[in-house]
Amino acid sequence: MTRIGRMFENLKREGRKGFIAYLTAGDPSPDRTPALVEALVRGGADLIELGVPFSDPIADGPVIQRAGERALKAGTSLKVVLEIAAEIRRTSEVPLLLFTYLNPVMRYGLERLARDAAANGIDGCLLTDASVEEAHEYVGAMHRHGLDTVFLAAPTSTPRRLKLVAQYSTGFVYLVSRTGVTGERESLSAQVAPLVHAVRAVTDLPLAVGFGISKPEHVAELGGQVEAVVVGSAIVRCIERNLHNASLEIQLESLTRELKRGFGAHA
Predict the structure, then answer these.
(1) Cα 241 vs. chain centroid, distance in angstroms?
(2) Active centre residues (catalytic)
(3) Where are the alpha helices (H) located in 23-75, listed in sequence order?
(4) 28: cis peptide before it, omega within 30°?
(5) Nearest partner of 124 among 41, 208, 201, 66, judged by Cα
(6) How far is Cα 20 from Cα 36, in angstroms, rounded to an integer?
(7) Are 46 and 260 in contact (CB under 8 A)?
(8) Side-chain-side CA neighbours of residue 82 (13 Å)
(9) pLDDT, tens only, 98-122
């Protein structure tokens, strides 16, 4: 079992919900990322998604697109993200999920990535644009090296696709709260509850909801429905607003703590 699996077991035993924090690795620079991860963990993040910057991020909204551009300009590649993970792992046991697109993975090599990711302390991988119908080779490589494979389920997913997501996912299933790209929203989509119900029918894995969660009220609304929430754009925006601020880490820690407060009785 990976750190991800153990994290969800611990959360269940303690009666808590998980807070998953996404940030674009290498933004504003590769050497700054480990300290930002530490700040998120101090604020209460239970799992960190390390986003690999990519030049054509079709699922990302403008906030994360800009973060990717900054990270690429700072020299961040998939190899560098793995080095960042190794640096984080020197002082932390926080679960790490590699969040990337298929193109960088194919260029790097599936088997090579699985081997190097495991060696550098990564616990699992999520390919945002991977077709679950054609995921057998990818899943095989990751599982051979003890890594979890997390897949996305969306409101538009067909029953057949949901069954495949359940079949190939380990660790947890990531539910996309709505169609479209990432980004902060004023309110959550009405599509979340039916999606949770549909995925519960095909898997016993923990469920995490992401896309658009940016307020404690959103966290509170989801706390009774799923095992974890994922916050990305709100965190990346905080980094963007404080790029040249010496208190960036303090701001991130505070934001995480404030968002997590939404769990309330569900924490």
Answers:
(1) 21
(2) 49, 60
(3) 33-43, 62-73
(4) yes
(5) 208
(6) 14
(7) no
(8) 17
(9) 999 999 999 999 999 999 999 999 9
Find the angle CA(96)-CA(167)-CA(178) to the nearest 5 degrees.
65
Span 71-96, pLDDT tens digits? 999 999 999 999 999 999 999 999 99
- DSSP symbols for 168-218: H--S-EEEESSSS-----SS--TTHHHHHHHHHTT--S-EEEESS--SHHH
Contact 55, 104 (CB under 8 A): no
Query: Residue 38's CB: how many other CB atoms inside 10 A?
Result: 19
Structure tokens at 150: 């997390």
SS3 content of the chain, % helix, strand, coil (to 5): 50, 15, 35
**Separation between Cα atoms, residue 11 and residue 194, nearest integer Å:** 24
- Yes or no: say if 27 and 239 are a contact pair by the CB < 8 Å rule: yes
Pairing mode of beta strands 124-127, 148-149: parallel
Single out the residue of 229, 226, 237 nearest to residue 259, CA to CA: 229
